[in-house]
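Today's session is about reading a structure prediction critically. Students often jump straight to the picture, but the first step is always the sequence itself: look for stretches that repeat, for charged clusters, for runs of hydrophobic residues. Only then move on to the predicted structure, which in these notes is written as discrete structure tokens rather than atom positions. Here is the chain we will use throughout the hour.
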Amino acid sequence: MGGYELVRSDDAVAGGGATGPDLESGAGASKAAPPPSPSTAARQPRLVSLDVFRGITVLLMIIVDDAGGFVPALNHSPWDGLTIADFVMPFFLFIVGVALTLAYKRVPDKLEATKKAVLRALKLFCLGLVLQGGFFHGVHSLSFGVDLAKIRLMGILQRIAIAYLLAAICEIWLKGDDDVDSGLDLVRRYRYQLFVGLVLSFMYTILLYGIYVPDWEYQISGPGSIEKSFSVKCGVTGDTGPACNAVGMVDRTVLGIDHLYRRPVYARTKECSINYPENGPLPPDAPSWCQAPFDPEGLLSSVMAIVTCLIGLQFGHIIVHFEKHRGRIINWLIPSFSMLAVALLMDFVGMRMNKPLYTISYTLATAGAAGLLFAGIYTLVDVYGFRRPTITMEWMGKHALMIYVLVACNILPMFIRGFYWRDPNNSLLKFIGVGV
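Below is the predicted structure for this chain, in token form.
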């Protein structure tokens, strides 16, 4: 599980032209304006509600990581369906999209801004490889290192890096110059970004339901390092179950099965666990695919993660172009409720909400929920000024990446465990009950 890079709302873009969001930027913000002076930039307020939203999501991430194994409702859904944990990733992607519109509100030099976006995405991707590629062996081990032949190539930060880069490029290059006085004007101004989102959704749907998935095999290490081989029978098209879906097939073909996540979420399904919906021993009649690697942050599923980020962009545009609080909130609520309604309808007709596959219904449901939550936080924090009760969440939101690296990736517990008294088990972690 995990965390997420977060483009903060006060990030400056290439060329020094963008600053933190002006909460009352208004429709006039869409017109060309000279970059503000440093003194003016320093006075511009942050969008506090975005920091609070990010902080709440960080807290939810930590709760899910620590309590998900004990409370099924806080763990990821084993396959179809949604739990609280399944909202964390799309919430962060949505926040990245909103923040990008504020960071790239003015872009004096598009090429320079693009270079910086590419560099930031590469840094984030590489950080993800180190943190989630298998280099660290967890709080139970003082060893580290990873076999490059089996390094996990995709992960949470890698997915966010990809979504961030594509959304940033769209925000830098695909903006019209139409004046914005209504929601329809907003659609017209950013029609090319919306078109990209529709193309990605269409491409994902065609691939998910149109790719033929043949039979496949995999090996796992048994007792004594003996390799055990398993064969999975498929030969189908359009299957969205754990064994024969196109998402897994694309990852096995492009990335290689040795580079996928080795603790798949479907190991907690009724078919694969006696302790369903928790992890447990395999049932006697468990299907052959139960122990197969599957990456919940794979390539094809990341296509819809990009769409979530693009949806966040559109919500951020409302901040930039609408001056009044009421106009912003109304223009957030309408698409949020609409996405939720469409998602429920799609789920009802069989296009199930599924986080590992990142289905379209899942994308719309989580983006709609993110929009509603963001509108609520904005109303409480930025409209009515409820700052003191949310100060902790605001701080966590400003330091989200640091918290993720130190806490969610267990870097801090592993560092503490590195100092022990005579025996590695005699560390401070033993006394506080962490990792031992």
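Discussion point for the tutorial: The CA atoms of residues 234 and 244 lie 6 Å apart.
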